[in-house]
Recover the amino acids of this structure.
DNA sequence: CAATTGGTTAGCCATGGAGCTAACTATAGG
DNA sequence: CCTATAGTTAGCTCCATGGCTAACCAATTG
């Protein structure tokens, strides 16, 4: 009854480490042996190997050993899988934004029709900005 | 003055937790109070608050308190920032793929032109790539 | 004002992650 | 066969993370 981390858990936590992100970035440029990968880092090999192992169990990296050298390569599918998560969130976010904007437009129309009564734009005290949000800020 | 984690470190490690991902997903649909957010989770409030705090220091979530209720909302910029990282990696990956494909095409042409003369480049059986590793391939 | 509600602070504990050294295995090369 | 190379295993620290309880504000509300 071990923990059974979800794939996303593993992928994100793998990418949370700068060393491991660097490895992934390196592997984007093509496969490499453990030694080649480890070379730029000031770190004992066993420590480094742990990172490789984390990347492997996360599914981001595949490796196979031939002779005495282990060659690692990226598994682009997993990376893309994580990317998808962002895109889904963004889709939801943007849908909401659209709804919100529609709502604001409706408010505006209502006000215009009411004939410029009062300046009802609330000001956010902490940011000093109006609540009107068009694109990003 | 200690660790000075990079923003990406913080964002990814924030997203590595399923509770926190759920919070982010919930906030994509619109802002909410801490209580509302905490409701679906079987977790003591202080524990839950820690998650909120992690999300805040990662920059993914903003919050402000008015009266006794704290309202949280998503900071889409940070989310998009993380998404960018993936896109950059994918760009590099795809560029490499293109180069690789071009390389394969060249091999093919060479072979055709040579009329099946000699196989001077050793081919690694497992990867299908030459052993000659100068720079990238 | 008293009680409730919504968060917050403080402090404890168990686990896991990231690093190390030392010693070992197994291939490649001379 | 001997040695150097490339990883691997074992086992140890240290500290960050995720969870808890208990006690504590500070606004609302009756």
């Amino acid at each position: 009854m071990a923990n059974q981390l979800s794939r996303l858990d593993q992928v994100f936590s793998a990418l949370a480490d700068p060393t491991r992100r660097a490895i992934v970035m390196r592997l984007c440029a093509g496969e490499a042996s453990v030694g080649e990968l480890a070379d730029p880092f000031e770190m004992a090999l066993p420590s480094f190997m742990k990172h490789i192992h984390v990347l492997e169990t996360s599914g981001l990296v595949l490796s196979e050993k031939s002779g005495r050298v282990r060659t690692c390569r990226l598994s682009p599918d997993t990376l893309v899988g994580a990317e998808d998560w962002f895109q889904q969130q963004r889709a939801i976010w943007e849908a909401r934004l659209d709804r919100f904007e529609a709502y604001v437009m409706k408010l505006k129309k209502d006000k215009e029709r009411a004939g410029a009564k009062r300046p009802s734009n609330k000001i956010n005290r902490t940011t000093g900005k109006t609540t009107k949000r068009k694109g990003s800020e």
The two ends of chain B are 42 Å apart (CA to CA). The CA atoms of residues 121 and 132 of chain B lie 8 Å apart.
